[in-house]
From TrEMBL:
Keywords: Coiled coil, Signal. Residues 66-93 form a coiled coil. This is Plasmid transfer operon, TraF, protein. Residues 1-20 form the signal peptide. It comes from the Bacteria. InterPro entries: Put_conjugal_transfer. The keyword Signal applies. It holds the Pfam family TraF_2. The keyword Coiled coil applies. Gene3D superfamilies: Outer membrane protein transport protein (OMPP1/FadL/TodX).
């Protein structure tokens, strides 16, 4: 029997060719995933119009960041390990048929209890990785971002027919675990991007100065769908071509930013060109346009921001008969930040108006000696062992 390892589940979330959204950096992650109004040019992938927001002496910023979030991680891995251990014990006892210690109904019930527990076993993960270079300006600012993100699920289901198979083995003395119909499904989609960020400050009567930004980007989608009997689930097969599909095309983000006294306002449209791909079972996954608005306030060292998705995001939501990947969501995000010369403290809160995802608390720490080098860390906490972490390194010139 092939043991279902940590690799076969967890790598679905963090070890794919390119790795939630591009530009979701550790600064943002620590402050409730906010930043489209409160950020500066170092967070341009959140809102390309931010490229015009900079301090005198800021010429160039380079960053490298990674972010990962997993839910029910430990419980899922423990349950799968327990189930496969129970299959192996029951198979060994049936094959041995020791007259002094014959297989009993209690042995069958122990295996069935582990198989039935698969229905409550699920691993949800997402991660992103990006490299960015940003050059701010009032007239023509630009940046380049290379990276991507992955969302993935490990889902397991108990098949009622397995009860007949297990209980018949007590009578016949024959048990073939390959005939178990309980199964595991690994399902993931990867969005990889190369984005050019452009921005310019404009002025209009009655509005005053504001910034507009655009991010044309080359985008590739990869889907992964691996389904196997729980006894034969083999992580080495997961990346076989039989389970992969991909497609590529161009997409576009558009952003606006306006400052008014201590107030900041942001509006962004992401992935304005709908992009679809079919996985290997013929289910269609679609990356759909999303829109978000934000208002932020800054006074001295204290900053606060509130952001909201303007429409429900149904990207990568598949029909009920297909393995689930994401549910519809419409997030509201709140972030706080205290900024000193060489350090920043952040906190945030995320809630889903669609009630499909649990609330999330975030905390972050930034260290930026003399505003030349920066190290940003973030942690996220939710229900059902939902845990996340983010790390970002930055260099400003």
């Amino acid at each position: 029997m092939m043991k279902l390892s940590v690799v076969s589940l967890a790598l679905a979330a963090v070890a794919v060719p390119a790795t939630a959204a591009v530009g979701m950096d550790a600064k943002s992650a620590g402050a409730g995933y906010t930043g489209i109004a409160s950020g500066d040019f170092t967070r341009a992938p959140l809102n390309p119009a931010l490229l015009t927001r900079f301090e005198e002496g800021d010429d160039l910023y380079i960053r490298l960041g990674v972010n990962a979030l997993a839910k029910e991680y430990e419980d899922a891995l423990d349950q799968v390990d327990d189930t496969q251990d129970a299959i192996e014990r029951f198979e060994d006892k049936i094959n041995a048929m020791d007259p002094t210690d014959p297989p009993t109904q209690a042995d069958a019930d122990a295996l069935l209890a582990e198989l039935e527990a698969l229905d409550d076993t699920r691993l949800v993960g997402e991660a992103n990785l990006d490299l960015g270079i940003f050059v701010p300006s009032d007239t023509l600012a630009w940046g380049l971002t290379i990276g991507g993100y992955v969302v993935a699920n490990g889902d397991f289901d108990y098949a009622d027919n397995d009860r007949v198979l297990v209980e018949q083995a007590l009578v016949t003395g024959v048990f073939d675990p390959d005939q178990l119909q309980s199964e595991g499904v690994a399902h993931a989609v990867v969005v990889s991007e190369v984005a050019l960020n452009l921005a310019r400050e404009l002025s209009l009567p009655g509005i005053g100065e504001f910034s507009v930004g655009v991010s044309p980007k080359y985008q590739r989608l990869d889907t992964y769908l691996y389904r196997a009997n729980i006894n034969n689930y083999d992580n080495e097969d997961y990346f076989d071509d039989d389970y992969l599909s991909d497609d590529a095309g161009f997409n576009l983000d558009l952003g606006l930013h306006k400052a008014y006294g201590n107030w900041r306002f942001g509006l962004v449209g992401y992935n304005l060109i709908e992009h679809s791909i079919d996985n290997m079972e013929g289910h269609t996954l679609t990356l759909k346009p999303t829109y978000a608005a934000a208002v932020a306030w800054q006074q001295g060292i204290f900053g606060a921001t509130v952001e909201a998705d303007l429409v429900e995001d149904e990207s990568f939501v598949v029909e009920s008969s297909a393995p689930q990947l994401l549910k519809a969501r419409q997030l509201v995000r709140t972030g706080l930040e205290l900024t000193w010369t060489h350090a920043q403290l952040r906190a945030g809160y995320v809630t889903d108006l669609s009630d499909n995802y649990e609330d999330l608390l975030t905390f972050g720490l930034g260290i930026s000696p003399w505003d030349c080098f920066s190290l940003d860390l973030a942690a996220q906490f939710g229900d059902d062992e939902e845990r996340g972490a983010a790390l970002q390194l930055g260099w400003k010139f």
